[in-house]
Amino acid sequence: NQSKAQAALSDIDEAFNNEDFDATDATATFHVSNMSCAVCTGSVERFLNSVRNEYSYVTNAVVSLPTNTAKVAFAPIDAVNAAEICSKEVYQQLAELCASTVTKGGYPTEILNVGSSSSEEGTSLLDSAARMEQSRRDELHGWKTLLLTSLLFTVPLAVIKMSRMRSENGALSDSNDGTVAELQDVTNGMTEMPPTPLDWTELLLATPVQFYVGARFYKSAYRGLIHGCTMGMDFLVALGTTSAYLYSVIVLVIQILCKYEMFGVHDISIMKLSTTFETGAMLITFVTLGKFLESYARGKTAGALQSLMELQPVSATRVILPTTLMEKLINLQNDLVGDEEIDYALAFEDANLNSIATEEKDIAEVQIGDFLLILPGGRIPTDGILVAREGTGKIKQPSLDSLDESDKTDHGGCAYIDESAFSGEPFPVAKRPGDSVYGASVNQLSVILIRVTATGSSTVLSRIVKLVDDAQTNRAPIQAQADHIAGVFAPCVITLAVITFACWVLLSGDKFDLEERYFKALMSAISVIVVACPCALGLATPTAVMVGTGVGAMNGLLVKGGAVLEMAHHVKTVVFDKTGTLTTGRAVVGKRIEYMSQITESDANSSIGRLISCLPSTVDRSDMALWFACCAELRSEHPLGHAIVNSGRELWGHDILKPVRKGQSGIANETELSILDFQVVPGRGVECTLVGMQERSCTVRVGNRAWARGIEEDANGLLAEVQTDQADEDVDFLRGQGQIGVYVSVKFSDDTDET
Questions:
Q1: What's the chain's Rg over C-alpha atoms?
Q2: Nearest C-alpha neighbor of 56 from the set 20, 80, 29
Q3: CA-to-CA distance for 225 and 232, rounded, in angstroms?
Q4: Are 277 and 206 in contact (CB under 8 A)?
Q5: Would you state the torsion angle of the CA atoms of residues 118, 122, 126, 127, taken in this order, to the nearest 10 degrees?
Q6: CA-CA distance, 30 to 63, in Å (whole number)?
Q7: C-alpha neighbours within 13 Å on the C-beta side of residue 496
Q8: How far is 195 from 193, CA to CA, in rounded Å?
Q9: Distance, CA of 708 to CA of 743 (rounded, Å)
Q10: Residue 343: its pLDDT value, please?
């Protein structure tokens, strides 16, 4: 497991090292608001690429619509002027200039981070996750407020319109000669001549939706026209809704003139036209609903990256070194020769980790060289090397060449770290002093002390987050084509709408009079614009890339950009070199071999007979090894222990100490069973004493071969040779099939003897 985990982490390092970037370049990350489509991202990129000052300039800008972020790379500072100014100040000024330029262009921009590609400065991952979540909440809250406001006015408006359509159906009939008498016939089915109080009500309800809720679309359309003469999706929304609103206002004004000057009017067909205030209001409401759902979906797709960021602890327990340890470290430093490094394990061999002084520090305050204390079950705050482990002081490290293959990774005296977040291996990895540990991995069983070797953006977790973030930002090749089409999409839609309007006016013939032809033509042109309003073309590809890379990261698969995803459909064969990671991530009991059940009554001695007689009546002889193993693993946190207990609970229910077979209502044993003296020996197994078996007790061991058989180490840390038997052959066979063999042994004791 350890070799597989190390291989997986080596693959991650190789992926980072293969990234194409110049470490001398500086970068900056921004949060950009008010972007709604690919046209907006193109405008922001043009603004950013135009930024420069006398020392440097922007070499590349990439804008991500799903995450509302922009990343820029700055050129190295001019060598002539490099000695005169501070590079950090230059890049900070450039970043501020970028933010102000984009903000003036109509897209409020906030600086998230400024630094070099290899810089260790900047905000912590948790701060980035908090900022991302706050930005998402603010955007979602803004669209939710607009949606509720729009619904508040649009729903009554729609109800009024539908009720009028039913009550006034057929009220306005065709007029033949335009006389006052015929006007009376036209208005017979109406209570009042238009405009009626309901017309004024519709105007009052539609206006807030049009100019308050729709203000965001107007502003975005205005920004696009002023800065670059671009027409995006918001321009289509503004154009379509404004056309419907202005048409209704014009109809309302003409009807007012006709109403108060009608005795001199001979053409009264304008009175047959109705206002369409509900058209623009409902369009804005539906588009706002789409924006709200889009914002909600963005938050979901960004959840994978945010979950990775939140793996980093918020604080760390820093060790306050006593004077004796400081002096010892100084002496070791003075004794170094050449490129030798300090043996920190030697310096802390006599230290009591449970009594050493500590202080809580924010993760941003942790520096390289600090010593951190991690308790069992705690996440390691940042990358480092293992210095000491709670226990017997200096850990013995016998030669691995003297151990057989099955005992190399299970040798005692190790700290165990869960690195499944990086390697995919479900089992903890044994770590000895000097071994590397990684931030966000979980310490398992003992108190450990580490020395920090990397912080900030240099940690493995930060580099994984950067890789995923870059993958979500980098465009797929097909997205460039989609963005190009989106750039000319709005002009094409407007052209089609004009053609539609002209065709209805010119080709409708004598089916409608002039006013009705214009009404039908305008409604058809608005419909063309309305259908084109959703920004699926510019949003679908970046959202798909974001979802794909995010889901892959959550499942341990790092995808380096949209181009990789786009080419994935050409893959015919996938070759995996680490079969141990192709699992569900959860261990299960696959096969059990009960050697006790194979002993006949004639072969069994009296102690074995008493052991069998003390079993609960609901535990069959064929399942006794599993039951004893479950009792020993009840308090274990090891994944294999959980698998054993889960297998037992499928047979006897949740309470292993009170086993109940399915279909049975109780147990036959009268005494209460209990577990005493539970202990975990890292790298070997667990042991407990089971008390209450008819006033007798037994000691159960579950673990590797040497632990279960009671084989002890000699003075050199080597295991004594023991003759193999059928159990060893069976376990070797299981290992050959890629499974893990676990031994179970029981030592039964009473007042007379043990077995």
A1: 38
A2: 80
A3: 9
A4: yes
A5: -150
A6: 9
A7: 16
A8: 6
A9: 6
A10: 76
Contacts of 609 (CB under 8 A, 6+ apart): 601
DSSP, residue by residue, 517-554: HHHHHHHHHHHHHHHT-S-HHHHHHHHHHHHHHHHHHH
Q: Which two tokens stand for residue 500?
A: 């539609």
CA atoms within 13 A on the CB side of 172: 15
Sign of dihedral through CA atoms 450, 454, 455, 459?
Answer: negative
Q: How far from each other are the two terminal CA atoms of the chain, in whole angstroms?
A: 35
The chain-wide mean pLDDT, for the chain, equals 75
Pairing status of strand 58-64 against strand 69-74: antiparallel
Query: What is the DSSP secondary structure assignment for residue 279, as one 8-state letter?
Result: H
What is the DSSP-derived secondary structure letter of residue 378? P
Burial class, 579, CB count within 10 angstroms (exposed 0-12 / middle 13-18 / buried 19+): exposed
Any residues with CB less than 8 A from the CB of 86 and at least 6 apart, and which? none
Q: Point out the residues that are catalytic.
A: 577
Backbone angles phi, psi at 461, to 5 degrees: -60, -45
Separation between Cα atoms, residue 702 and residue 587, nearest integer Å: 16
Neighbours of 258 (CB within 10 A): 19
Q: Say which amino acid occupies 715.
A: A
162 Cβ neighbours under 8 A, 6+ residues apart: none
Reply yes or no on whether the pLDDT at 211 is more than 90: yes
Neighbours of 690 (CB within 10 A): 23
Q: Is 79 exposed, middle or buried (0-12, 13-18, 19+ CB in 10 A)?
A: exposed
CA distances for 688 relative to 328, 630, 744, angstroms: 40, 11, 12
Asked if the bond preceding 195 is cis, omega within 30° of 0, the reply is yes
86: pLDDT confidence band, cut at 50, 70 and 90?
A: low
Q: Are 498 and 525 in contact (CB under 8 A)?
A: yes
Reduce the secondary structure of 645-668 to three states and give it as a string: HHHHHHHHCCCCCCCCCCCCCCCC
Number of Cβ within a 10 Å radius of residue 739: 13
Q: How far apart, in whole angstroms, are the C-alpha atoms of residue 192 and residue 201? A: 15
Of 624, 26, 530, the residue nearest 239 (C-alpha): 530
Helix, coil or strand: residue 692? strand
The whole-number pLDDT of residue 415 equals 80
Contact 230, 220 (CB under 8 A): no
DSSP string, 84-149: TS-HHHHHHHHHHHHHHHHHHTT--EEEEEEEETT---S--HHHHHHHHHHHHHHHHHHHHHHHHH
Would you tell me how many other CB atoms lie within 10 Å of the CB of residue 406? Answer: 15
* CA-to-CA separations, 445 to 413, 418, 436, 442, 699, in angstroms, rounded: 12, 10, 17, 10, 22
Which of these, 117, 106, 37, lies nearest to 76 by C-alpha position? 117
Considering Cα of 674, then 679, then 682, then 683, what sign does the dihedral take?
Answer: negative
In a 3-state reduction of DSSP, which class is residue 155?
helix
How far is residue 310 from each of residues 132, 305, 313, 471, measured CA to CA in Å?
11, 9, 7, 19
Least confident range of 141-150, 218-227, 360-369: 218-227
Residue 222 has pLDDT above 60, yes or no: yes
| Mean predicted confidence (pLDDT) in 356-382 | 87
CA distance 587 to 603: 35
